[in-house]
Specification:
It is a single chain. The protein is of the alpha/beta class. It has 2 domains: 127 residues, Rossmann fold (3-Layer(aba) Sandwich); 149 residues, 3-Layer(aba) Sandwich (Rossmann fold). The protein contains 13 helices and 8 strands.
Length: 392
């Protein structure tokens, strides 16, 4: 199950490293993998140390970020959101008669992934199918989770007893894409109902910025996705698919402009990151005749700190200063469309559905069951052992 296989820690259906599983697989449990977040003021700095582990960032600099969390009492909403998502997944699985428990573990805070894997193994659940709460290709949004799985198996000593596969990236699964549509259509329709001219309305699709070098290495290395790699290409394709559905919902919205912007940059000024920054763009919009914007965080599955602070606080303040009407639209959260879509993907993987029959809202998908060699390299640290992908 480890170094002798082309896909470390994989189930028999995926160990050979083919892009798509073609053999039905029985799983024992679902592993819900989250980022994690502090749940009190005393947790904030230890949590941020975990997030930045190995980078030697002193606590004084971490405190500059800590004020985002301290503004909300030191509590990130992400753990409560993952508890709600876990419950929603369990309910949907039960409604379909799928007898799979859901174990939840985080990368950076309790409960940790190693704890979740150990709990599953203690209950005799050794074939795990993972769902990470990030939809797109990049080191931080995909490969790092796969490295987390390998690390958890190493920390628990379960590498020869437990297998971990991962459902395909769900950026363009209809359940994810459709979950954005109602809120955006309602917001844009509301602008028009208020008398705002359609030509002065814009949609700002936003996602977490990442270093350009990481973006360029996102996705398989044998395919040219453009200067922003698979990460940027996927977001652009999803935004276009969402807008097609929004216009189909309300024909008055045809022709409303949109663009992809970025947020939450955290690197040094000398390091190029994906741009433009959402607040920088908002400052420029009045000069382009824009009077109202819908801010849609398509890079996020729930309203965690980057949404509550970077958008609901900083971006909305930037819009108010620019004299622009702004509404932040909904994330998937526990929207029934999103939850059902994830369970669809679980069933798809269990049944090894032929790729030609798998739903995808863009021409980039359906994405792979097994990540390809060299996918989403960490520029700073290179390749570490990872589950659910072909070893480079």
């Amino acid at each position: 199950m480890t170094s002798a296989s082309s896909v470390p820690f994989a189930s028999p259906a995926c160990v050979a490293g083919e892009p798509f599983a073609d053999t039905a697989q029985t799983y024992d449990a679902i592993l819900l993998a989250g980022f994690g977040g502090p749940e009190g003021q005393d947790d904030v700095i230890p949590f941020l140390r975990n997030v930045t582990r190995g980078r030697g960032i002193p606590d004084e600099r971490l405190e500059e970020v800590a004020h985002h969390y301290r503004h909300f009492g030191g509590v990130s909403p992400i753990n409560a959101q993952n508890r709600a998502l876990k419950a929603a997944l369990e309910a949907e699985l039960a409604a379909r008669g799928i007898d799979l428990p859901v174990y939840w573990g985080n990368r950076n805070w309790q409960p940790y992934l190693s704890e979740a894997v150990q709990q599953a193994a203690d209950a005799g659940r050794t074939r795990l199918l993972a769902f990470a709460t990030s939809a797109y290709s990049s080191f931080s949004s995909c490969r790092q989770y796969r490295e987390d799985f390998a690390r958890a198996l190493g920390e628990t000593g379960l590498g020869d007893a437990v297998t971990i596969d991962k459902i395909r990236q769900f950026f363009d699964h209809p359940g994810f894409v459709d979950s954005f549509v109602d809120s955006i259509a309602a917001t844009l329709g509301g602008f028009l109902d208020e008398g705002t001219d359609a030509e002065s309305v814009r949609v700002q699709f936003t996602t977490h910025s990442i270093p350009v070098a990481d973006a360029q290495r996102s996705g398989p290395r044998d395919r040219d996705f453009g200067p922003g790699g698979a990460y940027e290409a996927q977001h652009l394709a999803v935004a276009a698919a969402v807008m097609q559905r929004v216009v189909a919902r309300d024909g008055r919205l045809d022709g409303i402009g949109w663009e992809l912007v970025y947020q939450s940059r955290s690197g040094p000024a000398s390091q190029p990151w994906l741009e433009p920054d959402i607040c920088d763009r908002i400052e420029q919009l009045p000069g382009e005749g824009v009077a109202a914007i819908a801010i849609s965080p398509i890079g996020f599955v729930s309203d965690h700190m980057e949404v509550l602070w970077d958008l609901d606080t900083e971006a909305l303040e930037a819009a108010a200063s620019a004299g622009i009407r702004a509404v932040r639209t909904a994330t998937p959260g526990v929207d029934p469309l999103f939850v059902a879509g994830i369970v669809d993907l679980i069933e798809e993987r269990m049944s090894a559905v032929d790729p030609s029959l798998r739903p995808a809202a863009t021409t980039l998908g359906p994405w792979f069951d097994v990540c390809r060699p060299g996918c989403c390299e960490n520029v700073r640290a290179g390749f570490k052992p990872a589950a659910a992908g072909v070893a480079p």
